Amino acid sequence: MHVSIVGSGYVGTTVAACLADLGHDVINIEVDEDIVATINAGEAPIHESGLAERIADHAGTRLRATTNYDAVRETDVTFLCLPTPQADDGSLDLAIMEAGAESLGRALAGKDDDHLVVVKSTVLPGTTEDVVAPILEAESGTPIGEGIEVAMNPEFLRMGTAVQDFLEPDKVVFGTASDETAAILRELYSPILERDGTDLVETDIREAELIKYANNAFLASKVSLVNELGNVAKAYGADAYEVLEAVGLDDRISERFMRSGLGWGGSCFPKDVNALRAGAREQGYEPELLDATVAVNDGQPRRLVALLADHVPLEGARIAVLGLAFKPGTDDIRKSRALDVIDALTARGADVVAYDPVAIENVRPDYPDIEYADSAEGALADADGAVVATDWPEFDDLSFDGMARKVLVDGRRIDVDEDALEVYEGLTW
Ligand SMILES: NC(=O)C1=CN([C@@H]2O[C@H](COP(=O)(O)OP(=O)(O)OC[C@H]3O[C@@H](n4cnc5c(N)ncnc54)[C@H](O)[C@@H]3O)[C@@H](O)[C@H]2O)C=CC1
Ligand SMILES: O=C(O)[C@H]1O[C@H](OP(=O)(O)OP(=O)(O)OC[C@H]2O[C@@H](n3ccc(=O)[nH]c3=O)[C@H](O)[C@@H]2O)[C@H](O)[C@@H](O)[C@@H]1O
């Protein structure tokens, strides 16, 4: 099948490379010329395991990139993989989606045969039919249903395991208005749907849009609940990890997403939970539990710093922050809890020395005044205390020999030789 993918970021690039790998002919349409040149040179514009090989294999043949939307006319299906960021008030900002839909609609004006536009970006219920479709219709001059169809196909991949998550998903969701449209998507995804373990959900467009938000809201709330239980465990002097490991043995709960500590960050959970809260309010519903999910999450970095302050007077103290990425395996620092920890430490007068194996250069522009080390041990040298903000595997079995005071507060439950420390505190254990 001939497929165009608008937006070549984490999702668009991964989907493009994987669909090319499955045998489709794919073209990425992207405004960033560097990304276009990188893909056409056979290289990956982002770091994801298994991505570079796939782009190298297919670039120039089944995978191409361009800045020109006219390329959509050579394709049967277009996926919109554009950013759907958070506006200043927390609500969903659709400006980029609207601009992309306009360009796509204009390009489709010159197309003779039928075209399917699939929204893959995370958007609130109603966006595909009430925002994207009317723009496509107005710009192309073709009524929806008479040459252009729309569908919604949310994406559940995680950063760091994007390729594997796309090719081996738990579920694939098609939100369509007709079985003909669903059939096109079934054909496109057929190798993925045929594998054992992939559930196919076929539903209406509005439900597909909401499934994505409900999924992320559930996972974020699960971590916040685990963190609340963890805080209670800590108050009782109990180990939350032992407690929740046992709880997770209940099939109805599952042992996954049970790691308590500093909480959730990243480019998706925060913006998606906030968009759903704002959307729910707009619909006249007060999302109290989702509000609490965010409040508990926002409290964890402050709790970590308060715990450290119990052992180290922070004013003028040299404090090592280990880990800056929002989770291990990525250099993404968007809404990383580590940044809240740094803010809280500097607000209390501490001198921060930070280390991360890959994310330092992403933090430096916004935090030019803190110190950066080129190894964990370098950050720990002469430190009066340290905190773990990201559970990078390389932080297991650290040596604390160089610390001025061997105080470690762990926000992520790394493997530590507690006997090598003067003070070891876990955030929830
Ligand atoms: N990053 C992730 O792990 C996941 C993201 N999502 C959702 O997928 C959507 C895309 O997210 P990401 O790929 O992370 O975003 P991203 O920011 O990594 O990539 C978006 C790309 O679109 C390009 N772009 C912006 N305006 C454009 C335009 N008018 N025409 C063509 N290209 C344009 C940007 O230059 C950028 O390369 C969002 O709705 C996000 O919530 C869903 C699941 C996972
Ligand atoms: O919509 C999205 O973009 C994606 O958001 C998340 O993926 P991602 O943000 O890449 O990262 P996760 O692995 O889900 O972790 C999110 C945050 O939760 C934290 N977390 C996760 C699990 C856990 O047990 N405890 C915990 O604190 C992580 O440290 C991280 O900060 C979802 O897992 C994906 O399914 C979804 O597609």
Automatic annotation (TrEMBL):
Active site (catalytic residues): C268 (nucleophile)
Coiled coil segments of this chain: none
Taxonomic superkingdom: Archaea
Swiss-Prot/TrEMBL keywords: NAD, Oxidoreductase
EC number of this enzyme: 1.1.1.22
GO BP field: polysaccharide biosynthetic process; UDP-glucuronate biosynthetic process
Residues reported to bind substrate: K212, F257, M258, R259, S260, G261, G265, K327
Catalyzed reactions: UDP-alpha-D-glucose + 2 NAD(+) + H2O = UDP-alpha-D-glucuronate + 2 NADH + 3 H(+)
Protein name: UDP-glucose 6-dehydrogenase
Originating species: Natrinema pellirubrum (strain DSM 15624 / CIP 106293 / JCM 10476 / NCIMB 786 / 157)
Lineage start: Archaea, Methanobacteriati, Methanobacteriota, Stenosarchaea group, Halobacteria
